[in-house]
Amino acid sequence: MAGIVASAAGFGVVFGLTARGAGFTLVETAAFSTLVFAGASQFAAAGMVASGFGWPAIVLLTGLVNARHLLYAAALAPWLRERPRRERAAMAYVLTDESFALSLVHFRRLGVADQGGYWLAAVGGVFVPWNLATLVGYLGGQAIPDPAALGLDVVFPAAMAGLGVGLATGRREVVALAAGAAIALAVGLAVDPRVGVVAGGLLGPAVGLAVPRREATIPEPDELPADPDAFARRDRSEDGIAP
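Below the sequence we write its predicted structure tokens.
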């Protein structure tokens, strides 16, 4: 999570500078990061506001950019289906690329959903650093070097790549990861990197789903655990994917 914090803080400073240059007040900038809380969409919206775009175009673009969160929510839903609706709504509010990846790896490692781990990743890892850095960037970010000059632009993709490798525990996941990366690279080079990310994110999992699921094997009697209750724990994942 430390790398995610550094990346969120670095680019939060850049957003504070961007919002100030686009004509936002300090209160508007702080509200933007607190209420919208979506890095890529915030940068896109601030640029469009500065260029004089109308609100329908801004809403449409930011909605498309954040459409990937539908997939994130669907992946987390099986883990959190027992939680109250209000709590899940609050979790959705702070759902980002980083909190999704960190929490899903954490859930799969434990075999159960850990609400405390989710809130630590979402709030401690992203929400707090991003909002504090937004204020720093607005108030005095011009005195801070560009995060890219410090190498912070590499931290986020490197951290996400590492988390992605940790999630690839089966052949379907490996195929989805490889296909998504290849599609994103090809489309990004041919069209636009932003289009490549969307294409890879949508088509990669589709390719992975096309791979036949491996049939589960039934253990021999002498391979069974001595304690039959080991099979009966209701809150633990049986396949490492979801409870």
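The mean pLDDT is 81.
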